[in-house]
Amino acid sequence: MKNSWLRIPVAGGALLLLAGMLQVAQAAPVRAALSGEVTSTSAGPMEGVIVNATRTGSTITISVVSNRAGHYSFPVSEVGPGRYHLQIRAIGYALAAPSEVMVQ
């Protein structure tokens, strides 16, 4: 499993976005191609954060929302292999520029 941490400074604390490959057991109904966790040093796991993924060279953006534990995942059917720019949006937080991740 490859993981890359992305630190994004926010007003009131540092926000961490974990992005990487998630290998799901065959029994799981939905497989994730890209998943991670959004947390803040001041608030902990952040629910309701919008995470956008845009493939390099594309104008199509896929969005998901983090759950109560701050976890988000993009299904394999929506995110194929390639390089993606990730951007997160959370009300009340000033976020830095998007970062890039590679999905294999």
Topology:
Elements: E1 3-10, E2 13-20, E3 32-40, E4 44-45, E5 50-55, E6 61-65, E7 71-75, E8 82-89, E9 99-103
Antiparallel strand pairs: 1-2, 2-3, 3-4, 3-7, 5-6, 5-8, 8-9
Put the structure in a nutshell.
The protein has 104 residues and is mainly beta. The protein has strands spanning 3-10, 13-20, 32-40, 44-45, 50-55, 61-65, 71-75, 82-89, 99-103.
Notable traits:
104 residues; mainly beta; five-stranded antiparallel β-sheet; four-stranded antiparallel β-sheet; 54% strand; globular; disordered N terminus
**Percentage of residues in strands:** over 45%
Distance between the termini: 11 Å
Instruction: Give the averaged pLDDT, no decimals.
Output: 75
Task: Please state the structural category.
Answer: mainly beta
Main sheet overview:
5 strands, antiparallel
Element-level helix/strand string: EEEEEEEEE
Task: Write down how many β-strands occur, each being a DSSP E stretch of 2 or more residues.
Answer: 9
